[in-house]
Amino acid sequence: MKPLIKPFLIIILSLSLGACASSSGSNSKKQKDYSIYQTLGDALRSVGTLRVSGQGGAFTVTLVAGKFANSNFGADPGSVLYVINGVDQGKDYGNASSLVIPKDIISIRVLNGPEAVMRWGERGTGGVVEIKTSTNNAP
């Protein structure tokens, strides 16, 4: 029975060490107001686990928190996957920013490590930025 305990503990620990940050009003009485931001990049700056550099439409978004933030399982830095209203929009910030108006954002959730890989497969190895909007207009 002892040989079974070690693999089980490794799986449990690896799942618990992944980073996940959420900036949503669902857990609090007051929902965050994203309408004050000019661009998606500005809104992403408000999420503590992301480093956003650049301005206008030329932003680079990287993960900065959690055990897997530096390695991202070998993914290229800044290669976070953008998911808008449950639809994979790829790793191009320009595409994601053209689909999202900050005033329509309901929540932003950042997945990293094993949780991102379990939900989005290999495409989630660099981290995932899940954005939920009120317009639900993602293609």
TrEMBL record:
Keyword S-adenosyl-L-methionine included in the entry's annotation: no
UniProtKB keywords: Signal
PROSITE patterns (UniProt xref): PROKAR_LIPOPROTEIN
Cleavable signal peptide: 1-21
Top-level taxon: Bacteria
Domain TonB-dependent receptor plug: 37-128
InterPro entries registered for this protein in UniProt: Plug_dom, Plug_dom_sf
Gene3D superfamilies, per database record: TonB-dependent receptor, plug domain
Protein known as: TonB-dependent receptor plug domain-containing protein
